[in-house]
Design brief:
- This protein is α+β, with helices and mostly antiparallel strands.
- 39% of the residues lie in helices and 22% in strands.
- It contains 13 helices and 18 strands.
- The strands form five sheets. Strands 1, 2, 3, 4, 10 and 11 form a six-stranded mixed β-sheet that branches. Strands 14-13-12-17-18 form a five-stranded mixed β-sheet, with helices on both faces. The chain has a three-stranded antiparallel β-sheet with strand order 6-5-7, with helices on both faces.
- Helix 12 links the parallel strand 17 and strand 18.
- Helix 5 packs across helix 9.
- The protein is globular and about 80 Å long.
- The termini are close together.
């Protein structure tokens, strides 16, 4: 009987693992899928709560309610103690995350047929960059949330270490591996000694040579793509008009555009105060036809639909030079085209920061790039060619191994749960 599980609560997708017949496996969370989008929809028409792809589908179908995504990004920020309006009441973000974690717990308990009290939760190397106190507080908040979801014993493991434990199951001899986990919210790196002889050992401190991380992930790349190639269609970086002689011509305020392009902040645009403020910007705008689109998308609460389309376009750009978006829900016949070449130029700073942290990890481990045997890559954002190639170039003599982009961390956390709780 399994006594512990591993949960990868991800910014974009989540996974849960348990032991079946003595072997770790991922649980089916939604329509036999082993991962689920980290999304929750409060259906105010039916007073129901939906999760994952079903949550997104109900939102896309125009059902009345509130969609929330990328809730993990709220950990470590001041927003963790804030609330959002859902229907006629305010719901705290902590309570929303509790509801999502409880859903994951219930799905696994249904699969195994009994209550599970013990869990190893994944965490990024850095919830918050350059702020130890805030980083510690973020883990404390996640522990509190997990216990409120029904778990009695909660342990944590760095997500890249979990990925290393998953990779270690397949190694035939001792290796030095550089683990790269670039997900929706963070990029995490570890240098780990893996070996078939060390599998299952509780104390692996001597094998974990270094950990580093940075709060850059897929949602940050979505933000860049949206701001640089989509938001100009809504008036971003345009100016005010002169209503009277001598009026100062100013840039339109960028705040609402940035929030519209940031997954976990979109929900803050859906209120009358913001709508009136945007209408005021529209009145003073030089290009009112463009800002009219901004007014419409906030008025119709279609921000998450736009963010989903931008994310989908980003994925298309991993294999094509150009991606098209149909924005009929904003304006009939409105089409947007995004360029891979421009996207790669726009995320160059993020790419360089990722490379810098990889190099920092090697330096902390006192290991030269040539000594790394294997580059193990997991996380959805490793599918972006520019990012993947930059990682490969950092340790050019290493063998590159592609892990399960959305499942490696969950499997590793499950293996860790089995070791720590004696499953």
């Amino acid at each position: 009987m399994p006594v512990a599980i591993g949960i990868d609560f991800g910014t974009s997708n989540s996974a849960v693992g348990f032991f079946k017949d003595g072997f770790p496996c991922l649980a089916e969370l939604e329509n036999k899928r082993l991962t689920i989008p980290s999304a929750i929809f409060y259906d105010t028409e039916e007073n129901a709560v939906l999760f994952g792809n079903e949550a997104i589908s109900f939102y896309m179908d125009g059902c009345e309610g509130r969609l929330l995504r990328s809730l993990k990004n709220i950990l470590g920020s001041a927003l963790i103690n804030e609330s959002t309006e859902i229907g006629y009441k305010n719901v705290f973000f902590k309570d929303i995350i509790v509801t999502f974690i409880k859903y994951l717990k219930n799905k696994v308990e249904c699969a195994v047929g009994h209550t599970i009290d013990n869990v190893v939760m994944g965490r990024p190397v850095r919830f918050v960059d350059s702020d130890e106190q805030a980083d510690t507080l973020a883990q404390r908040h996640l522990e509190e949330i997990t216990k409120r979801a029904g778990f009695h014993n909660v342990l944590f493991q760095y997500e890249p270490i979990a990925a290393a434990l998953d990779y270690e199951q397949s190694v035939k001899k001792e290796e030095l591996a550089l683990i790269v986990d670039i997900g929706g919210g963070t990029s995490d790196f570890s240098v780990v000694r893996v070996s078939p002889d060390r599998r299952g050992k509780i104390d692996r401190k001597q094998d974990i040579l270094a950990n580093t991380g940075v709060h850059i992930g897929g949602t940050d790349l979505d933000l860049k793509l949206s701001l640089e190639q989509i938001m100009p269609l809504f008036g971003y970086r345009t100016r005010t008009r002169s209503l009277f002689p001598g009026d100062a011509i100013l840039d339109l305020p960028p705040t609402y555009y940035r929030e519209l392009a940031t997954w976990h902040k979109i929900v803050f645009l859906y209120n009358n105060r913001t709508l009136q403020s945007v209408k005021n910007i529209h009145y003073h705008a030089e290009k009112q036809d463009l800002v009219d689109r901004l007014v419409k998308i906030i008025q119709k609460q279609e921000g998450h639909r736009l963010a989903s389309d931008v994310e989908a376009a980003k994925i298309v750009l991993s294999g094509k030079d150009v991606a098209s978006l149909s924005l009929n829900y904003v304006e009939k016949g409105l089409l947007a085209s995004v360029s891979r070449k421009q996207f790669e130029s726009d995320i160059d700073k993020e790419k360089e920061e990722i490379v810098c942290r990889m190099q920092e990890c090697l330096k902390m481990a006192n290991i030269s790039p040539s000594k790394i045997h294997t580059l193990f890559m997991t996380g959805g954002s490793t599918a972006i060619p520019l990012i993947a190639q930059a990682c490969i170039n950092t340790v050019p003599s290493a063998r590159m191994v592609a892990g399960n982009k959305f499942g490696s961390v969950g499997m590793g956390l499950t293996i860790d749960a089995g070791i720590k709780f004696g499953t």
